Amino acid sequence: MSSGGLALAPPAKNVVVYRNGDPFFPGRKFVVNQRRFLTFEAFLSEVTESIRAPLAVRNIYTPRHGSRVAELGDLRDGCQYVAAGFEKFKKLNYLRQGRKELRGTGNSEGVQWLAFSPTFHSCGNTGSSHALGCFYCSVFRNGDLLSPPFPLPLSRSTPLRWDALLATLTEKADLRSGAVSKLCRLDGTQVSGGEALVNGDYYVAVGNEEYKKLPYLELLVPQDSACRTLWYVD
């Protein structure tokens, strides 16, 4: 209880959800808190829409062992899950691409760094992201303080076509205003080309409307995620 007599709300949880049976789906990040999801059903409905599942999501599983998650309280901050309908859990190595063991953990099992699987065409979907020289940016949606940033994998070895990047951003951002026409830094300055993108930085996808300067980072990215990567524990 707080000094004012009100119970403090549980901290938000950041989780990543994959599609059952789809080894190439890069995963969708969700911020789970009481303000956004009052019930587990509401969370399932949001997952269904966000990952564009062919059928309504009815079950959430852990990615390695297929353990079923029954309620919001069972979700763990910084962990990854697999969304399924009524079909059985399909055991795949969902975290195969871009994953590496955490340095300094010795023989500890199940603790790893997670890097999102490459989805941008210049990185491709075969081989490891390290072999392809991929790096990752995170992108917010202009004026949207409800949706967390999505990962944008890019290749260091393949020349970047800016029009192709904007097309990819349009598909991933799904802005209400339509196609993404520009990419901005958090201070609102426009990025002019792929060579200006910095590994690990945050950007904002903007349509034909003006850039909306909002506290994207402060409200949508937990303060304890300074390393800008997620822990995987299963």
UniProtKB/TrEMBL annotation:
Gene3D superfamilies: Doublecortin domain. It comes from the Eukaryota. Keywords: Repeat. The keyword Repeat applies. SUPFAM superfamilies: Doublecortin (DC). This is DCD2B protein. The keyword Repeat applies. It comes from Steatornis caripensis (Oilbird). Residues 13-95, 139-217 form the Doublecortin domain. SMART domains: DCX. One of its GO terms (biological process) is intracellular signal transduction. GO terms for cellular component: microtubule; microtubule organizing center. InterPro entries: Doublecortin_dom, Doublecortin_dom_sf.
